[in-house]
């Protein structure tokens, strides 16, 4: 029509070529987009919509199995209705044993501070404290802060001293078929070693771990920072 004729004769050749190039790229992406959208319905793909719906369905079925009688009520028109269920009264007793803590909580994630005023962890009894050696101002400021963590046995021969770590000396260790990430606060995080091209999201720590190649990993801290780790040895 008129619009196509005007476009053909009035637009400069370089702009038309740019539009055609981008159009071809979008068309080439079509099959891949279709494949990725179809994966969202797959129940065997972790964190897909189908996977989440399967978990929700399983949880609903389990709840119904535990509560077979349901909850009956009558609805009266033009009135506020409530359905109430009174649980059987049970005895209150003290608990003498609790599950052993596997790690130190994240101080930034907990409302209640998980350590004493002297930096001793309530969960595992470890000691941790930080020391800033120097700060360099500028467009990309550097705060050289070291953290000591008494349970950090993997850093007994660390470059900053025994069991000292900072954001420039974090690393991944390969244990069995999994990974152990030593973060800058001294805490360890265990992850499975995914195949190349796959990722794992740690919702608690807000970390995304991507296995880029056989010997390299990409760690994303939210949307603020990306770190690349390359295997040595």
TrEMBL record:
Residues 76-88 have a biased composition (Basic and acidic residues). It comes from the Bacteria. Residues 117-191 form the DUF6531 domain. Residues 66-91 are annotated as: Disordered. It holds the Pfam family DUF6531. InterPro entries: DUF6531 (IPR045351). This is DUF6531 domain-containing protein.
């Amino acid at each position: 029509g008129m619009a196509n004729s005007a476009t053909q004769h009035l637009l400069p050749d370089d702009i038309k070529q740019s539009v055609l190039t981008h159009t071809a790229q979008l068309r080439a992406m079509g099959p891949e987009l279709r494949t990725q959208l179809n994966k969202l319905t797959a129940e065997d793909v972790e964190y897909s919509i189908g996977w989440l719906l399967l978990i929700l369905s399983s949880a609903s079925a389990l709840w119904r199995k535990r509560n077979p009688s349901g909850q009956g009520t009558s609805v009266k028109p033009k009135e506020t209705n409530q359905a109430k269920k009174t649980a059987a009264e049970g005895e209150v007793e003290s608990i003498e044993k609790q599950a052993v803590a596997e790690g130190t909580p994240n101080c930034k994630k907990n409302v209640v501070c998980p350590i004493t005023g002297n930096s001793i962890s309530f969960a595992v009894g470890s000691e941790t404290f930080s020391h800033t050696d120097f700060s360099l101002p500028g467009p990309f400021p550097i705060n050289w802060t070291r953290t000591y963590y008494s349970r950090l046995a993997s850093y007994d021969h660390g470059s900053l001293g025994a069991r000292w770590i900072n954001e420039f000396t974090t690393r991944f260790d390969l244990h069995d078929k999994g990974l152990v990430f030593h973060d800058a606060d001294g805490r360890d995080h265990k992850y499975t070693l995914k195949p190349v091209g796959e990722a794992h999201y740690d919702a608690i720590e807000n970390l995304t771990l991507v296995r880029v190649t056989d010997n390299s990993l990409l760690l994303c801290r939210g949307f603020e920072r990306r770190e690349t780790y390359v295997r040595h040895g």
